[in-house]
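Self-study notes.
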Amino acid sequence: MLCQICGKNPATVHFTEIHDNKMSEIHVCERCAEEKGLQTVPAKQTFDIAELIAGMVDGMTATEEERVGHVQCPRCGLLYSAFKETGRLGCAECYTAFQFQLRPLLRRIHGDTRHKGKVPSRDGEGASRSRHVQRLYDELHRAVEREEFERAAEIRDEIKRVETGTTVGRTTAEPSP
């Protein structure tokens, strides 16, 4: 994308303005941004997600720190206290090793511990059905743990209906005795 002012240089500075519920964008090169007096963020003020996460983890009390500071990832050996200082995990296994400490942090950052992004329109129904079935399996597991077997049977039947694509009102014909 070229600068919208000079039309020569690549646009590297992007501004978005919302005024009276109307959004306008301007894309300019650094030289034109400086000439027009548009403020840019200095390089030393860049956003660092690791620093943000480390800062959010600092909200733990001393007793919580004593309890979780010695938790260690079995794969890479990273201590939770080291994650707390840097805001960076060592490997994919760290998510499992630190899951109890990360859940509240993720909930605070994202509002939930499960990603709920947009679904591509070409497979939206299939993906939606898969998520629904996964939620039902999770609910089934919890019902069995609580020994709520009647509820678990209802959930099992609902899973079958969703997986086969039948509606709730329709029942399958059973063979006569």
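Second protein, same conventions, sequence then structure:
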Amino acid sequence: MAHPDVRQALKRDQDIVTGLWMDFLKEQSENDNRLRVSEDARERWENDFGAWLEDETRRIYVAEREGDVVGFATAHRTAPPPIYETNGEVYLDEIYVVPDHRRDGYGAQLVEAVVAWSDRVRAERIRLSVLEQNAAARAFWESQDAVSFSRTYTIERQPVEEAGDDEGTKKIGFR
């Protein structure tokens, strides 16, 4: 059962959670400049927030301290391709606690809420990603009994000069 300071987000939480999400993105981009935040990130989040609250395959949890939201976690139910035998997973998309309240147990309480939800939907595991450069996040997840599953590699490329209409970039929203 989730700690009483953690609950499912409500529509009234949108502004504060959006602000915390923007802080999360800023922190991510400070850890790795490849994660620069797009100009319309806030607008996209705000457009989707209400739908996520009503989607049974998604959860947004908030951690409160004396009525103030001090952290959040987002997760969604997913399944690997049908070539694998599984009951599916919960993917923990984001978790963030304001710096002044880190190490106060709110992150663990948010994880506990996601774990409880994953049990209710009978997911076999919870999957998440952590930036390699974020040693504090890696240590947090290890303290939650998370184990490394895979590694993501990137091959950095130089931007290509204007090449005209190339293979599908307009369709998926790239310049």
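Instructor comment on the second fold: Residues 6-143 form a domain with the Aminopeptidase fold (CATH 3.40.630.30).
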